[in-house]
Design brief:
By secondary structure, this protein is mainly α. It has a domain of 210 residues. The protein has 13 helices and four strands. A two-stranded antiparallel sheet has the order 1-2. Helix 2 packs across helix 3, helix 6 crosses helix 13 and helix 9 runs parallel beside helix 12. The protein is globular and about 70 Å long.
Length: 328
């Protein structure tokens, strides 16, 4: 799927928002990076389970009971998702430092991380709040019994874990490598579909949920990555999207995790408005809002000359291979 050129391509450097130089290069051994990234995606989740394993075993419950505890107990759930986030970012740092040093430099050593996280969180929170607000006006969303609840903490932890773990693999590895080797259009299409369909196995998702998530996130999160050349804006959007949805409005996330937040939320009405068992991510108004926001980010990336054509990407890969052969 990915070329295994032994040296980084050298596209025109583009100043990122932090003033650092962001280069959409694949780095060395891109195929190896991809499989390491896929392994990290699984290993970080398993490692997070090991972090909370003593708590799970102490519960004295069977496998199903422990899985339920992992998603519903505030202490266990928070520890799991935070562990997942830390292991994912640490693994990405180790792999990129060795095989894609420019990516490591731009991601972890350039200024502006907090600002990008803050801006991303504002975008994600605004989209979700506007979507819920519209559905509330239409009578589709009902939020009851407003109070501070431990679900807020769980929603924040889940948002951090899912954002870091999924963005590291889907944007930090898959999109970055495809973008470098085959251009932005291919990277956008492939990662959008794979990201959406990876959620199709969630209990309340199915094919409908996979398609809905492909549409709602397929432009938004890659657009955030293209604009900055690193993970933090996309992580901020992804985090707030999930945390606000679950921790504040108490809505099921991607058809998988459901708990009350500040509100005990319910969605009723036709599936095209309520999202059905998937939750609000399947709601057409929210999908449209996300597509518009994603299109705006992509437009900004194109305006800043960060969109890579297939032809340019293939030319740069060929040139990189030729340099490796020339250097012997």
């Amino acid at each position: 799927m990915l070329s295994s050129a032994g040296a980084e391509a050298s596209p025109t450097a583009v100043p990122s928002s932090s003033g650092c130089v962001a280069e959409p290069t694949g780095g060395r051994r891109p195929l190896g990076q991809f499989f390491l990234g896929a392994g990290l995606y699984v290993a970080a989740q398993l490692g997070a389970v090991l972090v909370v394993l003593p708590l799970l075993l102490a519960s004295g419950q069977g496998t199903d009971g422990m899985l339920n505890l992992l998603l519903t107990d505030p202490v266990v759930s928070t520890a799991f998702f935070l562990g997942y986030a830390v292991l994912s970012l640490a693994g990405f740092a180790l792999i990129s430092r060795r095989l894609a040093p420019r990516t490591f430099q731009v991601t972890f050593r350039c200024r502006g991380v907090v600002r990008e996280l803050r801006v991303g969180a504002a975008i994600g929170a605004a989209l979700m709040t506007l979507g819920v607000g519209l559905l509330a006006v239409l009578g589709v969303y009902q939020g009851r019994d407003a109070r501070l609840d431990v679900g807020l903490v769980m929603g924040i932890a889940m948002g951090i874990g899912a954002a870091c773990g999924e963005e590291v693999f889907f944007r930090g590895f898959m999109f970055r490598l495809l973008n470098a080797r085959f251009g932005s259009a291919v990277a956008l299409l492939v990662t959008g579909i794979v990201f959406g369909m990876s959620h199709a196995a969630n209990p309340g998702a199915g094919v409908f949920g996979g398609v809905a998530i492909t549409l709602s996130a397929g432009l938004l999160l890659p657009g955030a990555y293209l604009v900055t050349g690193r993970l933090w804006l996309a992580i901020g959007i992804h985090f707030a999207w999930n945390a606000v949805q679950s921790g504040i409005f108490g809505i099921v996330v991607s058809g998988a995790t459901s708990s009350r937040g500040i509100f005990a939320g319910t969605l009723t009405g036709p599936t095209w408005l309520s999202g059905g068992s998937l939750g609000i991510e399947g709601s057409v108004p929210l999908i449209v809002m996300s597509l518009l926001a994603g299109a705006a980010l992509l437009g900004l990336a194109i305006q800043q000359d960060k969109w890579r054509s297939f032809r340019d990407a293939r030319r740069e890969v060929t040139e990189a291979k030729q340099r490796v052969l020339a250097d012997g």
